[in-house]
Amino acid sequence: MELTNKGVYGNREAWEKAGYQVPTFDYEKVKAATRENPTWIHFGAGNIFRAFQANVCQELLNAGKLETGLIAAEGFDYEII
Predict the structure, then answer these.
(1) For range 36-61, the mean pLDDT
(2) What are the residue boundaries of the structural domains of the chain, listed by start?
(3) Dist CA 16 CA 27 (whole Å)
(4) CA–CA distance, 81 with 41 (Å, rounded to integer)
(5) Residue 77 above 80 pLDDT?
(6) What is the pLDDT of residue 81?
(7) Residue 66 near residue 38, CB atoms below 8 Å
(8) What is the pLDDT at residue 33?
(9) 29-44 pLDDT, tens per residue?
(10) pTM (2 d.p.)
(11) What is the rounded average pLDDT of the residues 15-19?
(12) Residue 80's pLDDT is what?
């Protein structure tokens, strides 16, 4: 098993058999729709983003209730660190 788009979508059965949940949406279709019509952007892709906003987006995509993905924008500043 390979953790890449090709590895996950091309070998869905192996991932599911191993106990992993595989996205149920068409990744390439969502990526294209997001580029054409971005609808959700989040600034600051830290741990809270990964735990909440990204998960909400994933669940909505899997349920077919969202057609575009979430764009995460991160600023980097040595002063913050």
Answers:
(1) 90
(2) 25-81
(3) 17
(4) 23
(5) no
(6) 56
(7) no
(8) 97
(9) 999 999 999 999 988 8
(10) 0.79
(11) 94
(12) 62
Residue in the block written with tokens 């090709």: 6
Query: Where do we find the tokens 């991932």?
Result: 15
How far is it, in rounded angstroms, from Cα 69 to Cα 77? 26
DSSP one-letter string for the chain: --SSHHHHHHTHHHHHHTTPPPP-S-HHHHHHHHHHS---EEE--SHHIIIIIHHHHHHHHHHT--SS--EEE----TTT-
Contacts of 43 (CB under 8 A, 6+ apart): 72, 73, 74, 75
36, two tokens: 């054409």
Contact 73, 42 (CB under 8 A): yes
Smallest CA-to-CA distance from 34 within 80, 74, 70 is with: 70
